[in-house]
Design brief:
Length: about 325
């Protein structure tokens, strides 16, 4: 297993400087945004039609000995606004094509969230089964919007030899192991998850136990932590809608790895991932509002270098 970095936290720097900087932190793998929410500061989809730009991009990576773990295009392809949905879908399709061209096996995305009807203007994330109209909305979303799109899009990815790793994120239809596996059962084996334990913590889901549930559906992993604040949580609950920068009053906030849970927890997390067949990249994602990107990245890298498993264990004498 090795460390990587999801580079939007360094979007103000050109790619060459990003790669050189990461090398000083002993990181030689990156996850690059191609549009939608992550932006495309370091990886332009226009390279699909510009062979010279594509060669120059590949040369920059080769010069630093850097590989790409995934291309990421987190968006809402199911948005009820047709124009927004079309833009997100186009970015996702082109990202799959670029991944195929570059030989990258995984594209990271969101599952998306529709509205509550064909006339809706904004997404509607259903969080409870009552009053009964909420279940009617949920059935309509999955049957009429989620299933047709994801059956079609998953097949497109499979046709191009690429897997789609859905980041389970509240606000979208796949936000938990159960909803993730429901989507996978509909879309097929080319759809799995980008596993971010920080999104499990604040929902009250044990991220290590969830690895055992997800198993081989884990295609890619983000390294990000969450700190819970019980003094506030009794008031806010986990569905806290205050801005992330209102740290004193929130029930929880995202943290740099090690600031929410210590090395013992992260060692068990990494070991369980490996136990269930994932031995690829931990991609550091910085969303800690209490630390600058520079400090958060450096501290996460230092911390995680001590907990990743870098070598395949030798066969035991009793095997």
């Amino acid at each position: 297993m090795k460390l990587g970095v999801f580079t939007p936290l360094l979007s103000q720097m050109p790619l060459e400087e990003v790669l050189a900087k990461l090398k000083t932190l002993q990181i030689e793998t990156v996850e690059l945004g191609t549009g939608n929410y992550p932006g495309d500061a370091h990886c332009k989809l226009s390279m699909l039609e510009d062979s010279d730009a594509l060669k120059a991009f590949q040369q920059k990576l080769a010069d630093q000995g850097t590989t790409i773990s995934a291309l990421s295009c987190h968006g809402n392809a199911l948005h009820p606004d047709p124009e927004q949905a079309k833009r997100a879908q186009e970015v996702s399709r082109k990202t799959i094509l670029l991944a195929e061209k570059l030989g990258i096996p995984v594209v990271v995305d969101f599952s998306g969230c529709p509205g509550d009807s064909p006339q809706a203007k904004a997404p509607n994330w259903v969080t409870c089964p009552w009053p009964p109209e909420y279940l009617s909305v949920l059935d309509w979303q999955w049957n009429e919007v989620v299933t047709p799109y994801w059956v079609r899009h998953a097949q497109f990815a499979a046709d191009h030899g690429v897997k789609i790793a859905i980041e389970m994120h509240p606000g979208f239809v796949a936000y938990s192991p159960e909803t993730m596996l429901r989507l996978r059962s509909i879309a097929g084996p080319s759809v799995g998850c980008n596993y971010d334990p920080s999104h499990m913590f604040w929902q009250g889901i044990d991220p290590i136990a969830a690895i055992r549930i997800l198993g081989d559906a884990i295609f890619h992993v983000h390294a990000k932590d969450t700190q819970m604040y019980p003094a506030n949580l009794s008031r806010t609950g986990v569905l806290d809608t205050k801005p992330y920068t209102d740290e004193p009053n929130r029930g929880w906030i995202f943290r740099t790895c090690g600031y929410g849970h210590g090395a013992e927890w992260w060692k068990e997390f990494v070991s369980t991932l490996r136990m269930y067949g994932y031995d690829s990249v931990l991609s550091i994602e910085h969303e800690d509002s209490l630390l600058s990107p520079e400090e958060g990245l450096r501290k996460a890298a230092q911390f995680l270098h001590e907990v990743v498993i870098r070598e395949t264990p030798a066969a035991a004498w009793w095997v």
